[in-house]
Amino acid sequence: MSDGGRPGRVAILISGRGSNMEALLRGMRSGAIAAEPAVVLSNKRSAKGLETAAAAGIPTEVVRRRKGMTHEDHDRLVIEALDRYDIDLVCLAGYMRLLSPLMVARFPDRILNIHPSLLPAFPGLDAQQQALDYGARFSGCTVHFVDEECDHGPIVTQAAVSIEPGDDASSLSARILEQEHRIYPEAVALFFQGRLSVEGRQVRIAPATGTPAAG
User: Fold this and answer.
1) Which H or E run includes 103?
2) Cα distance between residue 170 and residue 181, in whole Å
């Protein structure tokens, strides 16, 4: 979704190497996602994904949380940076910070996150190890809209990954990441096709144009 018929504009927020960022960039470059990358922003100047974005000609921003700065003060600076780019959708791609209510309110139903578990199971950090420690038979990944709670917002799409004998956090993470790279671009594409609507905790996905509705 965008205004005035222009291409949608995406901000991607990262804290590290940004492999999901790269998957989103591939989707936008190929035309699978009807949008363009407007900016890549990180809370860490050392994030490797910034180099990747800059090499691709995408503007980058770094907004570090300085000593004594509150969570909302930091997010206020992030919002100021994003507002310079006329953003339609914010995509969290390994952004290792919880968003404040201020940030969520600025982009209502316009922030997506990818999490490496089948939410609501195993929210928070080290989700893959959490699944292994629990003895789960399946894990996976979830794309969801972001609300004020950690890994809690309405779910757009999920992919399951079986947990194999002998798996450790590294091997499980690698298989989950393959699915993350598949379903995150798909979810962003649906957003810019105007096919997602949020009703309470439910995300409705409208059929593609010309496709009969199910049922």
Assistant:
1) helix 101-106
2) 16
Q: In this structure, what token pair is assigned to residue 155?
A: 């779910």
Single pTM value for the model? 0.93
Taking all residues of the chain, what is their mean pLDDT, rounded to a whole number?
Answer: 94
- Extract the tokens encoding 209: 């144009």
The answer as to whether 195 is a domain residue is: yes
Q: Looking at the DSSP assignment, which residues form a beta bridge with residue 144?
A: 113, 155
Q: Does 120 sit behind a cis peptide bond, omega within 30 degrees of 0 on the bond before it?
A: yes
First to last CA, the chain: 27
**Does some domain include residue 212?**
no
Asked whether the predicted pLDDT for residue 214 surpasses 90, the reply is no
Domain presence at residue 215: no
Is residue 141 domain-resident? yes
Q: Examine the residue annotation and report whether 115 is marked as an active-site residue of this protein.
A: yes
Catalytic hit among 115, 144, 152, 181: 115
What sign does the CA torsion over 13, 20, 141, 109 have? positive
Q: How far is CA 9 from the centre of its chain?
A: 14
* Residue 68 tokens, joined: 């004594």
Q: What residues have CB less than 8 Å from 198, skipping those under 6 apart?
A: 109, 145, 154, 204
Q: Which residue's structure tokens are 């139903």?
A: 109
Percent of the chain at pLDDT above 90? 89
Q: Which residues pair with 204 in a beta bridge?
A: 197
> CATH no. for residue 92?
3.40.50.170
